[in-house]
Amino acid sequence: MIAYLEGILSEKRSTQAVIDVNGVGYFAFVPLSTYERLPEIGEKVRLLTHTHVREDAFVLYGFATREERELFELLLGVNGIGPKSALMVLSSISIDQFQRSILQEDLSLLTKISGIGKKTAQRLIVELKEKLQKSEALSAESIKFKTGNNTAEQALAALLSLGYDRGEAREALQRVTSEKKKMSAEELVKKALSSNVSAKLTTT
């Protein structure tokens, strides 16, 4: 299995990229969210990858972040969702929007995604709700839009070490970042701890 590709960006289109790794060109399908982060052709690039093996093909899918790849792989685990549909989800809405639509059981948002009907949307909610709540990478993604990836992960890890369960920690951080201003990990943790209404420490 190929974990990532690092080399020179040789070609790019809205759904695909070719990376030259030591003279060998690797073709990978990418979601729009990754395409938008690609550098100019001829520049160095690194993509995390998922290898999809079929009887008649060996296909690579590339992602700018581990959160994108993790969500892609979670989607593939849902009955009736293949790589094409998983890429469509990532290309249509942000990870944060998708996560909230699952946790809040928002069928109207999910069914706006091309190829996702009501039955498929219901299946996504049933099969992914618990998994998304437990996902460390995607919990950090849901708050990093205001804090930055490393800051979010540091704050989340700190709250977990203090006794929060993952769901409470994620919800507490989402609430304190509603102010839409950048904060350090220490500031996030302090605000979460002082928010008695939003979360409480678990007892063991």
Please summarize the sheet with the most strands. 5 strands, antiparallel
Helicity, as a percent range = 40-55%
Rg value: 18 Å
Cα(first) to Cα(last) distance is: 40 Å
**How many H/I helical runs?**
10
> Roughly what is the average pLDDT, rounded to an integer?
82
Low-confidence stretches: 196-204
How would you describe the oligomerization state of the chains in this entry? single chain
The count of strands amounts to 5
List the strand order in the largest sheet: 3-2-1-4-5
Structural class from helices and strands?
Answer: alpha+beta
How much strand content do the residues show?
A: 15-25%
Element pattern in H and E: EEEHEEHHHHHHHHH
Overall body shape: globular
What's the short story on this structure?
With 204 residues, the protein is an alpha+beta fold. The chain has helices at residues 32-35, 66-76, 83-92, 95-103, 107-110, 118-134, 136-147, 149-161, 166-176, 185-194; strands at residues 4-13, 16-21, 24-29, 44-53, 58-63.
